[in-house]
Specification:
The protein has about 210 residues and is an all-alpha fold. It has helices at about 15-35, 40-50, 85-90, 95-110, 115-130, 135-145, 185-195, 200-210. The chain is globular.
Length: about 210
């Protein structure tokens, strides 16, 4: 995960020392997270998992300025996922924050495979919105139809992009500027969109079945 920090840290000797310390702490935290959250066999399985780009028809055509989907710009108060950039630029390098940074980095790496993205999506849907069981099944079906849970999926005709197939793709900017390379940003945006527009994944899926879009 690339962390953008230009203009945040000074170029003084003290600033360089802090950056060096942060780098060491983050590396240690990330190493710990990788050992904690996933064993070698799990990572090997993820490595075998293919993640082809999909350029088929997108059905998320209703996500545009005229659709009323601008509601997603409301504050994401319920999101519990700590963004690594915010932690590192805040200067609050507590053990808890470093743990959150490591967890975030682990989830991003895991979600870059299709099966990994499904696991991360299931986790975040339950943590942030309480969606599990039937609601998770609806979400899974919806995004399988949209992108096969592939974060590089792109519709060349419409420009829809990513796991939830946001259109235009710049809608992801609300959640984070790293959406092109960060599947977690895409997932979090998609969950928020469904919550604001439909309330639940099953309602979104029902709309998809009727109109081929949601």
């Amino acid at each position: 995960m690339v962390i953008y920090m230009s203009g945040i840290w000074s170029r003084t000797a003290a600033g360089r020392s802090v950056r060096a310390l942060v780098g060491v702490l983050l590396a240690l935290a990330l190493s710990l997270a990788l050992n904690t959250f996933g064993g070698g066999s799990a990572r090997a399985a993820e490595a075998r998992d293919s993640a082809p780009s999909i350029s088929g028809e997108s059905s998320l055509a209703v996500v545009n300025p005229e659709s009323g989907a601008e509601q997603v710009s409301q504050p994401l108060a319920e999101a519990r996922l700590v963004v690594a950039t915010e932690v590192l630029t805040s200067g609050k390098l507590t053990a808890l924050n470093l743990s959150s940074v490591a967890r975030s980095a682990y989830l991003v790496k895991k979600a870059k495979t299709r099966n990994g993205a499904r696991s991360v999506g299931k986790l975040l849907a339950k943590e942030n919105y309480g969606w599990s069981g039937k609601q998770w099944q609806c979400l899974d079906k919806l995004w399988i139809k949209e992108s096969q849970w592939t974060y590089t999926s792109h519709n060349k005709r419409t420009g829809a992009h990513g796991i939830p197939q946001a259109y235009p793709a710049t809608k992801y900017e609300y959640m984070g500027s790293d959406w092109r390379k960060n599947p977690v940003t895409q997932i979090m945006w998609g969950l928020k969109y469904i919550d604001v527009r439909y309330g639940t994944p099953c309602k979104a899926l029902n709309t998809f079945y009727r109109t081929r879009m949601y």
